[in-house]
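Quick note —
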Amino acid sequence: MAKPKKSSKKPAEKKPASEKKTTKPDKAEKTTVEKKPVVTAPVKQESCVKKFFAKKYDGNESILTIFKDKKIYGALLGEIFGTMIIALVILTLGLYQPLYTFFLLLATIVAVYKLSGANLNPINTAGMMATRRISVIRGVLYMLAQLVGAWLGVLIVSAFAKASGPDVELTGMTMVDATYYWVVTLTEFTGAAIVGFFFARAQQFKKSAFTFAAVAAGGVLAATVVVYLVLYNYFGLTGTFMMNPAIALMYQILPTSADTVGELLLEIGKALFTYVLFPMVGGVLGFYLSDVSSQLADEQ
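Predicted structure written out below.
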């Protein structure tokens, strides 16, 4: 009878309890990792004054860089064409038809808004420069373009007026009498401040060209009505205001004759003061009033 073969495998030796594998922790029990608190540096808040006078345009724009971008040429053409249209309107209809002026100005602003922002008036450009919305070099170029546009408008209207007859005069502005010099000067200043305030407020609606144009043109309408009513109702004056230094200069508001050179220089200085300097200061004041109002209202 064959003997059963013994298996070569040795019986497993029992390990001592100390050598037994430790049981894995339950999956549900998650080890907590202590996170160190992250210390962030305090954010410095910009002062209201510094924010108020901060640049709102490309700081790298200068005389060396501005002409490298072809957009500046389109902007200047827009200012020339837009100001020319406004000069044509004012010198044909005058400022005695404020509703006609409003709608024509509305259409003109919408047409050139995407090109240059539709300043179309040195009053607005001076306010844009003073509040650092545009650079000085861009502002100067815009003003020169507005002068060219106003000159073209006066030239076109004058040509048609002369062709129609020698007795036809342009509808525009008459020279102010010395008796009412300060009355006209202050009304020009007041009207320019209204125009500047509305144009600054229109900057809040840049996304909509029509809304922007409506607010800006509404400012011109409001200024025209206020100035006309004051001058006509209280002093019986008509046609003594313009509220656009470019058109006033091209309309030959500066005197060309006097008894002496000294008197001529004095009259030129007074005309510049009334129709150029004071309106531009008024426009700057209107811009600052708008910005102060925005700060007080915490408007972004």
